[in-house]
Amino acid sequence: MTASSHTDVVPSLSIVQQPRRARVGQLGEREKRVVDPCPIVQLRILRADGSEDTQAMWEHIFVMHATLFDEAGTVECSSARAAAGGTSYAGVQQAGDEPYERIVFGSLVSSAYYVRDLEERPGCYFCFPDINVRRPGTYRLRFSLLQLPRTEREAVEPTTILGHVMSDPFRVYTHKEFPGVDESTPLTKKFAAQGVGISIRNKGRLKSDDTN
């Protein structure tokens, strides 16, 4: 994780639930083809000595944004243009560019959830239960932490990214190759029971033991 030096908070980000797989999805489909399990990122605020400052967590407004990257974590894959000899990925379309296709869609921003984990410890988490990918392949998700202004005076300053954390690689399958889905994890069920908007599956439909 990287952090900005200008701020008085020192964020520590960790992915407590990694994405593993998804089936290719298309806009307008009734059935969601979301990345599974739901990626969950924990935020801790640390003092200079490394101890956790729980009070500072409540003094700031945080949100998190997810961005799709390639397997190596070096090329953003949010959109793509057809190009001679293959696919050209582009994070942001520029004026005059060829038509491009959005590769990732759904809810790519999460507000902070203050909930308890499986050991009943309170914490701050960001959850992404509605991320869909339109092309098969192996990808990563980069999660970026932002601090929103609390006052009008703060609002005149540009919003900066306080830190990043990159997920493990996960695979997006074609409809034919997709091995199925697991039962929802205990952590997913725990957060859903506390009001986080995550769909729950009480029974998995996994064809094989897939670890990608």
What can you tell me about this protein's structure?
The model is unreliable at 1-7, 82-86 and 91-95 (pLDDT under 50). This protein has one domain (10-198): Velvet domain (Immunoglobulin-like), CATH 2.60.40. The protein has helices at residues 54-57, 152-155, 186-193, and strands at 10-17, 21-23, 40-46, 61-70, 79-83, 86-90, 101-102, 104-106, 109-111, 113-116, 122-127, 131-133, 137-148, 161-166, 170-173, 180-181, 205-206. The strands form 5 sheets. Strands 2, 4, 9, 13, 14 and 15 form a 6-stranded mixed sheet that branches. The chain has a 4-stranded antiparallel sheet with strand order 1-3-11-10. Strands 6-5-7 form a 3-stranded antiparallel sheet, with no helix packed on it. A hairpin with a 2-residue loop joins strand 5 (79-83) and strand 6. It is mainly β. Helix content is 8%, strand content 40%.
How are the secondary structure elements laid out?
Elements: E1 10-17, E2 21-23, E3 40-46, H1 54-57, E4 61-70, E5 79-83, E6 86-90, E7 101-102, E8 104-106, E9 109-111, E10 113-116, E11 122-127, E12 131-133, E13 137-148, H2 152-155, E14 161-166, E15 170-173, E16 180-181, H3 186-193, E17 205-206
Parallel strand pairs: 2-15
Antiparallel strand pairs: 1-3, 3-11, 4-9, 4-13, 5-6, 5-7, 8-12, 10-11, 13-14, 13-15, 16-17
The H-level CATH homologous superfamily, spelled out, is: Velvet domain
Number of domains: 1
Helix content: under 10%
Give the overall shape, derived from the CA principal axes.
globular
